[in-house]
Amino acid sequence: MKAGEITSWAGIVLAIAIGCGAVGGAKTQGTIAANDYVNPEQGFAFRIPPGWSHVKEGGFFGRPEHLVRFGSPGGDAAVIAHAAPVGGFACFDAAKNLLATRDGMRIVSEEPFNLTIPGGSLPAWRADLVAAAGDRRGRSAFFCDGGRLVVLEGSATNAAWPQRQAEIAVAIRSFAYTAGTTIVRVEPPAPTPTPERFFSHLIEWRGQNLAAIAKWYTGKAENWRTLAELNGVKSAKEFLPVGREVRIPQALVVKTAPLPRPRVRPAQVAPSPAAEAPADEDLPPVIGPK
Asked: End-to-end alpha-carbon separation of the chain, Å?
């Protein structure tokens, strides 16, 4: 390869790297201070859920597609921040496309509002998410400012969602627009949630189902749906295997005495025809004229 060709190829590679944010691009990792993540260049900040950690990932030219990612202790949930040009789209459409292409998430419900900032307002949204593959659920908040879209997304596996939902809400509710020293919350910050407590019931004999368990411990058979989502059971009348543990949210429990073993009714023996009507030869003799 000639020297001129080498120079030309090097220029192309450098241009691609700059365009992707690998060299001197707009993507920055921001700073982590205490429990907050702050990105002054992109103009946003949010609260990191307690116990979650920064996940460093590579991407094209060693740069990830997103700005920053934090993962739950079990690795079953994540909070991800994105920033991208609106690219001629309406703000909501730009966010919908970004979530679908980068994370495979689909918006299923949204709540638009105007985010008041010094000197005006910005279009902003809160939205509920589900994965296109159907294996995750999530929540997001996003706004647009001067042709720039900023998205914060939190999601967890379906099984982990009941446990991680409140933790993800810590980040989403604290998502803030920053302009210089001014911070405007997209949602009012919420107190750090306390871990949900559960009561456990052990299946010790056959014939138990969630409808009966919910009725006994919570006082309402219809609470079986909450137990089903928490324990991965599909039907209210599905008999559960002996040895399985069923978790019940402590907030729903109205009694803790063990579910009593069902009484077995003794089999009733039908009387024989002979016992119902005595035979003629057993009848007493008839006295009197015939």
From this structure: 136
pLDDT tens per residue across span 195-248: 678 899 999 999 999 999 999 999 999 999 999 999 999 899 999 999 999 999
| CA atoms of 26 and 29, how far apart (whole Å) | 10
**What is this structure's pTM?**
0.55
CATH of segment(s) 15-185: 3.40.1000.10
Residue with tokens 């079986």: 224
Token pair belonging to 21: 């944010």
According to DSSP, residue 180 is labeled T
For CATH 3.10.350, list the domain ranges present in the chain: 198-252
d(CA 130, CA 103): 10
CATH 3.10.350 fits 198-252, yes or no: yes
Tokens read off for 77: 């949930």
- How do residues 47-99 score in pLDDT, each as one tens digit? 999 999 998 865 444 445 688 999 999 899 999 999 999 888 889 999 999 99
Q: Yes or no: say if 82 and 153 are a contact pair by the CB < 8 Å rule.
A: yes
Distances (CA, A) of 197 to 19, 163, 223, 252: 49, 10, 16, 10
